[in-house]
Amino acid sequence: GETVTMKAIWNACEHTITYDANGGSGAPADQIKKYGEQLFLRKEKPTRIGYSFLGWSCSIGGTYKPGDEYTHDQNGGKVTMKGIWSDNIPPLISELKAEPNTWSSGNGTISVTALDQGSGINKIELKRKSFVTNVTTTVKTWNHFGTTQQVKDIYTELNEGVYVYTIIVTDVAGNSSQKT
Fold it and tell me: Which residues, listed in sequence order, are joined to residue 166 by a DSSP beta bridge?
């Protein structure tokens, strides 16, 4: 009888954690998680114009914040952290102009310029309050169907009177900005 000695070669179980910015940019670099070792997710946050970063959705379940401890162990493969975004940023109204801004015998022009780079502008409402009757009415609504490009809308006032105008710009996510 011959004795055969076999040696076992053990490799530590490990897997890769990848980061997916999910429409944003600046995803952190991959990490390697070794079995039983403590690991914290990277602290860097991706960015996305018009959105706020809320954290990571993990491909094996659960959500994490940057820098959270990650304890999952598996042998090989990868686990993906996918960015979670929220459009909680209201549109920007860069200009609201009424001309003339004094008494005039002619028509008036009201122009608004706005931008939303998140979910995009859904609609712009122009409200007019009569200085005489104190009654407010919506005189014009422009639908923009989620455009993320800058928009400029113009309204021509044909009615005689003294008015105060308010513009309300609402994005697809429901955030709104207003200017008077």
Answer: 127
